[in-house]
Amino acid sequence: MPRFPRLGLRTLLLVAPIAAPPAPVAAQRAASMAAEARRYVVHDAATVVLTNVRVIDGTGAPPREQQQIVLTDGRIAAMGTSVPIPAGATVVDLPGHTVTPGLVMLHEHMFYPTGRQTPGLFSYVSQAFSFPKLYLAFGVTTLRTAGTTAPYVDLNLKHAIDAGRQVGPLVYLTSPFIDRPGYPIPHFKHIDSPAAARRLVRYWAEEGMTWFKAYTFVTREDLAAIIDEAHALGLRVTAHLCSVTHSEAAALGIDGLEHGLLTNTEFVPEKGPDRCPGEQRVYETAATLDVGSAPVQAGIRRLVDRRIPMTSTLPIWETMVPGRMVPAGALDVLAPELRDDYLAIQRRVAGQTTTFAAAFAAALRWEREFVRAGGILGAGSDPTGYGGTIAGYGNVRQLELLVEAGFTPLEALVIATRNGARILGVDDQIGTLEVGKRADLVVVRGNPAVRIGDMGNPVLVFRDGIGYDSAKLIAAVKGLVGRF
């Protein structure tokens, strides 16, 4: 969760994580859903057949044209060019459309920043109504939250989605941010010792969290305690770090890291043990860093050798680059007062120096080098900062920025589908389009293998074989994001 600063690619393969997460809830039909959830459903037959579609299967293989996909009882029953259509099936003819796996996004939140026009004020409003709909509308069928400011909102929201009272992706929950004092963020329960960190892990594990989020000012001793306690419970830890370097976290056995180069302090010359040199100093260092240099490549190698996954969150960093704007559609769903706030701050960013632009360019290259070395890269949007990064829209932008970083569109889709599923340990069920897997997929107009931005044209999203109307989901939250 970065804050607003002062105003080939040879392989995408990875291994299973240390512990399997809880099994997902069983698929259900729309008839058992609450009326509020059913209103977005357009296809709920026992068997649905999508015809004349282009298939991008999430494995990195070339697209296949003129395909038919048979979805039966929430699973992919058949795929191919001449698949028999079962009697009684609902047939949806989709020429000019592409089907991809549902996106599996690993750094998402169910809150949005407000009040950022007031310096030093950190205010976050839960988006339990709008964000699940936007994530689902843009094809995010599974997500992991990456820290919460309202844990019981997230827990109750997950239960509501699982029970069919609301619509949204399958959610894997991460704990509240675990941190030492450093930022005046009232949503945090700051710790004062490794023992306090252990108590938080045990408490939130009992409440239902399956991942834990260590944050900026934790010490190495704190982080070791968090990891040890979580692993003892069969659960996992990721982190947005500063006081602890990425290499130090890897040596402690962390299960994942967030944000890439721009939260790694090991290249800041004056960095001291267990001390955060400040985000601005990290950005200044990255702006002049040679990503191809031996020290940086050695740091990448340490993560690769320990098979530590990294989550790319390029959209949140892009908001700090002068001259860049979020998609117009994202602004349309914002509450008007928050749209005005975003535009005012964005104008201030536009007048800054190019230091962060250089840091962002280094971050793009670092992610490409990380994957080229065999690193495990997942994806997320991180809708925080000073605003402007919006659920759904930000996930599409993440794909576009991966392509800007040098990945092909097909590689970007692998990162956002198969890799996400593997990091969560559910790639036997989701992440690629294969017969027998869950029918989690997105239908978009156009060809994202040629133009990745076509992922921003969703028409239908199937989760567990139930088809949702993307346009209806988006229309339901116009002008509400930031409020609900």
Architecture blueprint of SSEs:
Elements: H1 35-38, E1 41-43, E2 47-55, E3 64-72, E4 75-80, E5 90-93, E6 97-101, E7 103-108, E8 111-114, E9 123-126, H2 130-137, E10 140-145, H3 151-162, E11 170-172, E12 174-178, H4 194-207, E13 211-214, H5 220-232, E14 236-239, H6 246-252, E15 257-258, H7 279-287, H8 294-305, E16 310-312, H9 314-318, H10 328-333, H11 336-350, H12 355-372, E17 377-379, H13 393-404, H14 409-424, E18 441-445, E19 458-463, E20 466-469, H15 470-475
Parallel strand pairs: 2-5, 2-6, 7-10, 10-11, 12-13, 13-14, 15-16, 16-17
Antiparallel strand pairs: 1-20, 2-3, 3-4, 6-18, 8-9, 18-19, 19-20
Helix pairs in contact: 4-5, 7-12, 13-14
| Count of structural domains | 2
Largest sheet: 9 strands, mixed
Q: Which class best fits the helix and strand makeup?
A: alpha/beta
Number of helices: 15
Mean of pLDDT:
93
- For the record, the CATH class of the largest domain is Alpha Beta
* Strand segment tally: 20
Helix content: 25-40%
Low-confidence spans:
3-26
Strand content: 15-25%
According to CATH, what is the topology of the largest domain? TIM Barrel
The CATH superfamily of the largest domain bears the name Metal-dependent hydrolases
Give the termini distance in whole angstroms: 20 Å
Q: What is the CATH-assigned architecture of the largest domain?
A: Alpha-Beta Barrel
Shape: globular
Radius of gyration: 21 Å
